[in-house]
Backbone:
């Protein structure tokens, strides 16, 4: 049985993200519990360095929680002064170079589940003491005889797209599933893993989409948020609007919007490529959304989430035309026509509900 220590980085409220409500300490505890549940179901012996948000053990207490453990994994999200910086990064010990491929496998699994890039694996050395690890949790874990000591940065909470993904409980479960699969493969765990991904009804997975909106007379961020059902702070974050959150008529805002998905149960004889062809989406999107790594095998009965793009359900108002609606959402009118089966002369009656395709980030 593999002995695994999961360390939810920091503590409650630590490191707020760019999107409203996110902070690293609280979110990593949620991810840690999801990951621990998956690994326990696979037969691993799991220990947490903290189990509640009011706990804040020292770095030494975290790293030495279980001397001689097979794996110590510290869960984090990264930060940068560059808001465009994204991606998952894995860190391993300078004293354990042979563990680099294992750290890379976990990092790639997390990146795939997030639909993100993998920035690589690094052994970060102390800036003052050569040959010693920079990260205290890795250093003390190695000193305690842990065989593989890793720190995983799950994207950047200073990047809006990454922050939205990490704020989604369904996405956290996908990340946990993918990381558990990678760990299980390394240790040869034979317990039955859960189905990859968290099934959801159509249109309920958040993150990854946006549309543009032009500020009208009388608009405030709060009013716009109420109109579209999106937290006004999320609009401010996506649009780069700082406090005191003033906006001007004619200003273009970015409205973050949920990604439209449908569940699919794998049937006998199906492959990820056949399913992708059936839904008309790239097979890589299905693999990333469900944490499926090479060689991309799926099993009969497995539940997948198929991301079919993004959409907004819009009710036609008096005076609307397909061209005005397209201008309102910043999308080509031809895409609206195609999504709703509209043909020339493209007339729309007030009260009709139509689908507006939304660009993906």
Residues:
């Amino acid at each position: 049985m593999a002995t695994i220590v999961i360390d939810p980085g920091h503590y409650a409220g630590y490191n707020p993200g760019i999107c409203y409500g996110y902070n690293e300490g609280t979110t990593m505890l949620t991810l840690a519990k999801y990951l621990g549940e998956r690994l326990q179901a696979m037969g691993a012996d799991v220990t947490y360095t903290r189990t509640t948000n009011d706990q804040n053990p020292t770095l030494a207490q975290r790293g030495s929680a279980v001397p001689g453990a097979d794996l110590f994994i510290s869960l984090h999200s990264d930060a940068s002064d560059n808001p465009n910086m994204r991606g998952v990064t894995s860190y391993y010990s300078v004293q354990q170079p042979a563990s680099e491929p294992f750290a890379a496998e976990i990092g790639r699994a997390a990146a795939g589940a997030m639909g993100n890039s993998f920035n690589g694996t690094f052994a970060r050395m102390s800036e003052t003491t050569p040959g010693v690890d920079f990260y205290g949790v890795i250093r003390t874990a190695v000193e305690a005889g842990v065989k593989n000591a890793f720190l995983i940065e799950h994207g950047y909470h200073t990047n809006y797209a990454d922050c939205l993904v990490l704020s989604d409980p369904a996405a956290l479960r996908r990340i946990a599933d993918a990381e558990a699969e990678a760990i299980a493969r390394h240790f040869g765990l034979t317990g039955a893993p859960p189905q990859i991904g968290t099934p959801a009804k159509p249109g309920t997975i958040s993150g990854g989409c946006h549309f543009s909106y032009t500020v009208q007379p009388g608009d405030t961020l709060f009013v716009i948020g109420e109109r579209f059902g999106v937290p006004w702070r999320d609009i401010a974050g996506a649009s780069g609007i700082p406090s005191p959150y003033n906006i001007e008529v004619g200003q273009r805002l970015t409205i973050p919007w949920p990604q439209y998905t449908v569940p699919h149960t794998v049937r006998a004889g199906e492959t990820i490529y056949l399913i992708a062809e059936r839904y008309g989406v790239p097979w890589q999107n299905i693999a990333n959304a469900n944490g499926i790594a090479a060689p991309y095998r799926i099993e009969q009965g497995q539940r997948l989430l198929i991301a079919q793009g993004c959409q907004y359900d819009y009710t036609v108002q008096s005076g609307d035309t397909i061209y005005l609606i397209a201008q309102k959402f910043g999308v080509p009118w031809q895409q609206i026509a195609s999504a709703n089966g509209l043909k020339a002369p493209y007339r729309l009656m007030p009260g009709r509900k139509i689908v507006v395709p939304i660009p993906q980030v």
Notes: Strands lie at 3-8, 45-48, 71-78, 88-92, 118-122, 149-156, 205-214, 252-265, 303-315, 353-358.
